[in-house]
C-alpha cells in the first residue's frame, strides 16, 4: 500500500506538470520536451557517447538519472528497433510525436531498484550497435524509458536517435551553412535619450554577452547578421554621457570593451549588415513606407562598415519571420538586395498531383537550400532557404538538464537523414542528351558523382538568446560528422535538385503579425515633420531619420505599448526642435489705406536657418494682403542663430480700419508647413501717414500743456505765502520778519 501510494503521488505530480505531460504523451520533439521540463523532470539523459556510431562492436554509453518519490522502485528500459533504420525525416518526426511506430524491442538495463533518499536513481550502462541490431547505415530510433517496477506503467520516456555511419561507407557530403543573428531591440529614442538601461545589463552578463561569447567560439564558416543600430547604440553608450529617463549618466566602459571584443571576434568571418534597426520590411511596404525601407538598407551597410572598421555588405536580407511577399521582394531588389534568407516553407515545393496540378504535396527528398526568385529588377535574386526543423533545434531552449544533448543528437540525425535521402533517393535529372544524369559533377572516370546538397540553418527568432556551450558543442559535433561539411552562406547557390517550387507563401496570419497600422501612421507623421526639420536645419537631419527608422524595427511586433512610448519621445524631440523657430505674435499696427505689417521670426536654435514665410489675412473685409492671390509668400529668408528677422508684409486697409488679424505660417523651401500657423493681431487706423504725423504732433502739444498746468498747481500748494523768493523759506522764518496784520471783518 505504501508503494502504491508513493507511485500514485508521483504520477499525480507528473500529470499535473507540463514536464510530466511531455514525458508521457511526447507531443513535442525530444529536445523541446527536455527544455520545457521542470527541474524535477522524472528522467534526465545526460550522456550518449559516442554521438555518432562508427564501429558496430564499439560500446555506446548511456547515462542519466530517474527522479521520483522516495522509496519508489523503478526500472530503466532501452527501446530500439533492430535492423530497422528510419527511412525519412517525416518518419523521424512521427516517431518523436509518438504518431509513428514505437520500437517494440527493449532491453532492461537497470532492474527494479528503489529510488534513494533524495528520490533519485542514477543509471549508466553500455550497449553495442550489434546488440541494438544496427546492421546497416542509417538513423535508428532509441528511447530511454522509466517504468514502475511493480505495475510496468510508464513514468517517463525520452526519444532520441543514434546515427550509424560505419567507417569506409560512402555517404554524400551535406554542405551546412549556419547564419546567426546579432540583433537587439532599439534602446534609444532620439539621438541622446535612452529609454531604459537594459543595454548595459545585457552587454555585461545578459543576452548580448552570450552572443559575444558565441561569436568568439564559432569558426570562420558561420555567417553573422549584425544590426548596425545595435552597434551604434553600443558606441553611443561607450563614448559619452547619456540621458536615461531624464537622469544623466556617464559613459559605460563595459560597452566599449564589448564592442572591441566583437570587432575581434568577427575578424575574418563572414558578416552581413541587416537593414538599419532590422525593420519590419513587409509592414513598411504594405503601408506605403517604401522610402524608409530603402533608406534602412542603404544606411545599414554604411554604418556597419564604419563601426566595425571593415567593408560590410547589406545585399542579403533576412526578413522578420523568414517570410515576405512579392511586393516586398520587389522593393528589396530595387534597393540593391541580391539574396533573401527565408524559411524553406515560405517557398514550398510543388509536386503535381493527378487531381490538382497546383497542389503542394510532400516530397520524400529534402530539397536543396537555395532557389532562384525573379522580381521587377533586371537580375534574379537567390532565395536562401533555412530548414525549419534544423532551425527549430538550433534556436530552441536548451536550458533544462539534458536538453542540449538531445538537441545535438536530433540535429546530427536530421542532417544524416538528408545525406541518406540524397544517397538512396535522388531522382535522376535529364542531361543535355536526354539521358538520365545525377545532379553534380561527374567523377574522373566519367561516372556520375554522388550529389552534394546544401542545407541552411538559422535560429527561429532574430532576438535569439544562445547558449554558447550548446552552439560550440553543436558546431564541434557537426564538424566531426562524416556527412557534414561547413560552408559560408555566401557560397550557397541554387542547384539543380529537380524541385519545383511554388510562389512565395505569405498568409493572412503573417500579415496579422506585422507592425500595426496605427503605429506606422505615427511613423509617417513623424517622417513628414523630420523632413521639414531637415530642410530648415541640416544638422539634425540624420539623427531624426535614424530615430524614425528605429521605430520601424520588427522587434516592436507584439510590443505596442513600448513602441508607443518610443514614438512619443521622438515626437517630443522633433516638436522641440520645430518650436525653436517661432513667429513673434505681439500686436502690430498699420496706418493709412495701404502700408506694411512687420512680421518677426525668432531663431532660438544654435545654428542659422533658411525659412520661408506665408501670410494670409484672417479679416479680409478690414485688412487684405497686397498680393495677386491674396497670399504673401517670401523667398527663403536666412535667420542667424539666436537672432530675429523682420519681414514687412504689404497690406491694404479697408472699411476705415479697425482690429484685424493675419495668419503667419512658416514654410520649408519645399513649401512644407513648419510648425503651426500663428495668429497676429493688426490694428489698422485708416489714417494716411501725414495725418498720423499731424495728429501725433497735436497730441504732443496738448500733453505738454496739461503737464505745465499740473506743475503750476503743485507749485502753488507748496508755497502759499506772498513775497517769498526762490530759495527762501516763509516770512516768519527770516530774522527781520514783521508779522503781518490780520484784517478783521467789521
UniProtKB/TrEMBL annotation:
Q: Does the keyword Membrane apply?
A: yes
Q: Where is this region: Disordered?
A: 425-459, 720-746
Q: What residue intervals traverse the membrane?
A: 687-711
This protein's source sits in the domain of life called Bacteria
Q: Where does the record place a coiled coil?
A: none
Q: Where is the signal peptide?
A: 1-22
Going by the UniProt record, its keywords in alphabetical order are: Membrane, Signal, Transmembrane, Transmembrane helix
Q: Where is the composition biased (Polar residues)?
A: 425-440
Protein name, as recorded: Glycoprotein
Name its species: Microbispora triticiradicis
Amino acid at each position: 500500500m505504501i508503494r502504491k501510494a508513493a507511485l500514485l503521488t508521483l504520477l499525480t505530480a507528473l500529470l499535473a506538470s507540463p514536464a510530466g505531460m511531455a514525458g508521457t504523451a511526447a507531443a513535442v520533439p525530444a529536445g523541446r520536451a527536455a527544455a520545457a521540463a521542470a527541474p524535477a523532470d522524472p528522467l534526465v539523459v545526460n550522456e550518449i557517447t559516442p554521438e555518432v556510431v562508427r564501429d558496430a562492436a564499439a560500446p555506446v554509453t548511456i547515462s542519466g538519472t530517474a527522479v521520483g518519490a522516495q522509496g519508489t522502485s523503478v526500472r530503466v528500459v532501452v527501446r530500439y528497433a533492430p535492423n530497422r533504420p528510419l527511412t525519412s525525416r517525416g518518419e523521424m518526426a512521427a516517431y518523436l510525436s509518438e504518431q509513428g511506430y514505437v520500437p517494440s524491442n527493449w532491453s532492461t538495463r537497470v532492474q527494479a531498484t528503489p529510488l534513494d533518499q533524495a528520490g533519485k536513481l542514477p543509471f549508466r550502462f553500455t550497449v553495442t550497435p550489434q546488440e541494438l541490431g544496427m546492421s546497416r547505415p542509417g538513423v535508428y530510433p532509441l528511447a530511454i524509458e522509466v517504468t514502475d517496477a511493480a505495475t510496468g506503467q510508464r513514468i517517463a520516456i525520452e526519444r532520441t536517435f543514434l546515427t550509424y555511419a560505419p567507417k569506409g561507407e560512402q555517404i554524400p557530403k551535406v554542405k551546412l551553412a549556419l547564419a546567426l543573428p546579432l540583433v537587439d531591440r532599439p534602446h534609444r529614442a532620439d539621438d541622446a535619450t535612452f529609454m531604459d538601461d537594459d543595454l548595459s545589463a545585457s552587454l555585461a552578463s545578459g543576452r548580448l554577452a552570450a552572443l559575444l561569447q558565441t561569436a568568439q567560439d564559432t569558426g570562420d564558416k558561420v555567417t553573422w547578421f549584425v544590426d548596425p543600430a545595435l552597434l551604434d547604440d553600443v558606441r553611443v553608450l561607450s563614448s559619452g554621457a547619456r540621458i536615461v529617463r531624464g537622469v544623466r549618466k556617464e559613459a559605460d566602459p563595459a560597452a566599449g570593451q564589448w564592442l572591441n571584443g566583437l570587432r575581434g571576434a568577427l575578424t575574418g568571418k563572414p558578416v552581413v549588415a541587416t537593414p538599419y534597426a532590422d525593420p519590419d520590411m513587409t509592414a513598411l511596404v504594405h503601408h506605403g513606407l517604401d522610402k524608409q525601407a530603402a533608406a534602412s538598407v542603404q544606411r545599414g551597410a554604411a554604418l556597419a562598415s564604419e563601426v566595425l572598421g571593415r567593408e560590410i555588405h547589406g545585399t542579403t536580407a533576412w526578413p522578420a519571420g523568414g517570410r515576405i511577399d512579392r511586393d516586398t521582394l520587389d522593393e528589396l531588389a530595387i534597393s540593391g538586395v541580391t539574396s533573401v534568407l527565408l524559411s524553406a516553407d515560405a517557398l514550398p515545393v510543388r509536386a503535381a498531383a493527378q487531381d490538382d496540378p497546383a497542389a503542394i504535396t510532400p516530397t520524400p527528398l529534402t530539397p536543396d537550400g537555395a532557389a532562384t526568385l525573379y522580381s521587377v529588377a533586371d537580375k534574379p535574386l537567390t532565395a536562401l532557404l533555412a530548414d525549419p526543423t534544423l532551425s527549430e533545434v538550433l534556436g530552441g531552449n536548451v536550458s533544462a538538464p539534458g536538453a542540449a544533448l538531445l538537441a545535438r543528437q536530433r540535429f546530427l540525425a536530421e542532417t544524416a537523414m538528408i545525406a541518406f535521402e540524397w544517397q538512396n533517393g535522388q531522382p535522376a535529372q535529364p542531361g543535355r542528351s536526354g539521358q538520365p544524369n545525377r545532379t553534380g559533377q561527374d567523377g574522373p572516370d566519367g561516372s556520375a558523382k554522388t550529389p552534394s546538397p546544401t542545407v541552411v540553418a538559422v535560429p527561429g527568432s532574430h532576438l535569439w538568446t544562445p547558449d554558447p556551450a550548446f552552439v560550440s558543442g553543436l558546431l564541434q559535433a557537426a564538424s566531426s560528422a562524416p556527412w557534414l561539411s561547413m560552408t559560408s552562406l555566401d557560397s550557397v547557390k541554387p542547384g539543380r535538385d529537380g524541385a519545383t517550387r511554388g510562389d512565395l507563401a505569405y498568409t493572412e496570419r503573417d500579415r496579422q503579425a506585422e507592425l500595426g497600422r496605427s503605429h506606422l501612421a505615427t511613423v509617417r507623421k513623424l517622417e513628414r515633420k523630420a523632413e521639414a526639420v531637415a530642410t530648415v536645419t541640416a544638422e539634425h537631419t540624420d539623427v531624426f531619420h535614424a530615430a524614425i527608422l528605429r521605430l520601424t524595427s520588427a522587434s516592436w511586433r507584439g510590443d505596442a505599448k513600448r513602441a508607443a512610448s518610443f514614438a512619443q519621445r521622438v515626437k517630443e524631440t522633433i516638436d522641440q526642435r520645430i518650436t525653436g523657430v517661432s513667429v513673434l505674435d505681439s500686436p502690430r499696427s498699420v496706418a493709412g489705406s495701404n502700408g506694411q505689417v512687420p512680421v518677426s521670426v525668432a531663431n532660438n536654435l544654435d545654428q542659422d536657418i533658411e525659412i520661408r514665410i506665408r501670410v494670409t489675412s484672417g479679416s479680409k473685409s478690414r485688412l487684405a494682403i497686397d498680393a495677386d492671390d491674396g497670399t504673401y509668400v517670401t523667398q527663403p529668408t536666412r535667420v542667424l542663430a539666436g537672432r530675429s528677422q523682420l519681414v514687412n508684409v504689404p497690406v491694404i486697409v479697408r472699411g476705415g480700419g479697425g482690429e484685424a488679424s493675419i495668419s503667419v505660417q512658416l514654410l520649408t523651401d519645399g513649401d512644407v508647413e513648419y510648425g503651426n500657423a500663428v495668429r497676429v493681431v493688426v490694428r489698422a487706423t485708416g489714417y494716411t501717414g501725414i495725418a498720423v504725423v499731424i495728429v501725433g504732433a497735436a497730441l504732443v502739444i496738448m500733453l505738454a500743456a496739461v503737464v505745465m498746468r499740473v506743475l503750476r498747481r503743485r507749485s502753488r500748494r507748496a508755497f502759499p505765502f506772498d513775497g517769498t523768493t526762490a530759495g527762501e523759506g516763509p516770512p516768519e522764518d527770516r530774522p527781520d520778519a514783521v508779522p503781518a496784520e490780520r484784517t478783521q471783518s467789521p
